[in-house]
Amino acid sequence: MFKLNENEKEYRFGDSGPKYLMKGPRLNFAVVQFQPGQDFPAHYHNIMEENFYIMEGEIDIVVDDKVNHMKKGDFIHIEPGEIHYVKNNSDKKIVMISTLGPFQDSDKVEVKDFKWPQ
């Protein structure tokens, strides 16, 4: 067992990105925040599945060329191999929970040349 407070951790990019509260041994758990206009590069995972639960705000999550407009209370599950891209197209910050499992030390494959679906 371990216990911590979210304030003991930092977002990866200062005011945005994931803030991992736990990395392994079986899954990753993070609070994720994006300011208006911020995004995270398109990528997929070979082994890990990823989940997002929206706590505050609205965000667009593209999964395999389908734009999913997400708002507070929405949940999305992303299977291994599904290309996903996250962008805050709103004028307010977004806060969401992310889980990734089963834990892998490195399982993110960035997708170059990603284009927003028509």
UniProtKB/TrEMBL annotation:
InterPro entries registered for this protein in UniProt: Cupin_2, Flavonoid_dioxygenase-like, RmlC-like_jellyroll, RmlC_Cupin_sf
Gene3D superfamilies per the UniProt record, alphabetical: Jelly Rolls
Signal peptide: none
Domain Cupin type-2: 31-98
The protein, known as: Cupin domain-containing protein
Highest classification ranks of the organism: Bacteria, Pseudomonadati, Pseudomonadota, Gammaproteobacteria, Aeromonadales
